[in-house]
Amino acid sequence: MKAVAVLPGKPNSVHLRDIPAPKLTDQPHPHVCRIPDGRAVLVKTLQIGVDATDREINEALYGNAPPGGDHLVIGHELFGRVLEVGSKVTEVKPGDFVSCTVRRPGGSLFDQIGRNDITSEEVYYERGINLCHGYLTESFVDDAEYIVKVPQNLKHLGVLSEPASVCAKAIEQAFLAQQRLQVWQPRRAFVMGAGQIGLLATMMLKLRGIEVYTLATKPGPHRKSEIVEAYGAKYISTKQTSLAELVKQVGKPDLIFEATGNAELCFRSMEVLAHNGALIWTSITGGKHEVTVDAARINLEWVLGNKLLVASVNGNRRHFELGIQALSHGEHTYPGVTERILTHPVNGLDGYKEMMQLLEDKEALKVYVNVAT
Ligand code: BGC
Ligand code: ZN
Question: Where do the CATH 3.90.180.10 domains begin and end in the chain?
Fold first, then answer.
């Protein structure tokens, strides 16, 4: 069967290759974990979302092949349909729509309690990213433990399950950490960046009743600003209103969700957070980027203001469930808005070159591959 793979370490190596079709009895990542007897699920891939991580893997900035091979099947944002289940699987059945988590457990205590999303080991195992093959292929097998059901009436948004899990986790982490304050009730949030993560975070924060300002460069109106406004948030073009001006107009935010992919903005965000506020970092920034900041001022204000920085990556199955719930809640409250994120479909695995090209296109909000119907 067909799969889209790269040769990690070799730039622009994305290619189509033939791999054996999986069977229910396979062990997909025996170097990491084994599927217990009867707990395997065979899934047919329907759609795969791609993001900057896939682009960076193809640029050889990121990612490793599973041991013993030279290629890595990419794709970590899965929407699929169950084909077959093992005798001990009760959670899903053939025909169910599903997504699948990305990280597999390493050896730390966190991994042992099902929190592989916060493994304390430096080596992490992620399907389609690091040391485990991904989903950009026709079908795959995994442990029922990592398969998450997507409701039938949410199938048009199923491909957003993984990015939604990342947002839902990051926001939950901030709220959990803010329990240190006993009575934290954030009124105002800034979301930095209006890519898929920024937009989903905008929606999730609005669903919590927070006043949200979503900042990006390009002046509206355009699709991103329309989505932001349709969620009931305000779109701010930093070309028209700087971060400092926005703070002057509306006040400092209690919560900042940083998702620009720009390391400088991670630090600029530190300069505007309100007392007792939380700053969430989710950007994955490859390469090297040095910036100058007034470290004394930031330190002073952060200490005097009891501020908190929460960095968050990945999501385990509970975060997928939270993300899928948020997508459902969002669909109910803002019908038809979230699907506007799905801008650039690619037809079939054969379209892998177009898929990589679209990842370079700044206008492409979400690139995804329709693998099968
Ligand atoms: C994925 C996460 C993953 C992270 C780090 C992101 O693109 O969505 O699931 O943990 O990359 O590799
Ligand atoms: Zn990703």
Answer: 2-150+343-370
For residues 165 and 156, what is the distance between their CA atoms, to the nearest angstrom?
Answer: 16
Q: Closest ligand to 368 CA? A: 2
* Beta carbon of 57 within 6 Å of any ligand 1 atom: no
Fold of the 165-311 domain: Rossmann fold (3.40.50)
What residues have CB less than 8 Å from 117, skipping those under 6 apart? 103, 169, 313, 314, 315, 316, 319
Residues by chain with Cβ below 5 Å of ion ligand 2? 51, 53
Q: Is 129 in the pocket of ligand 1 (CB under 6 A)?
A: yes
Banded model confidence at residue 363, pLDDT cuts 50, 70, 90: confident
Ranges for all domains in the chain classified under CATH 3.40.50.720 = 165-311
Query: What pLDDT, in 10s, does the model give residues 293-304?
Result: 999 999 999 999
How far apart are alpha carbons 335 and 328 in whole angstroms?
Answer: 10
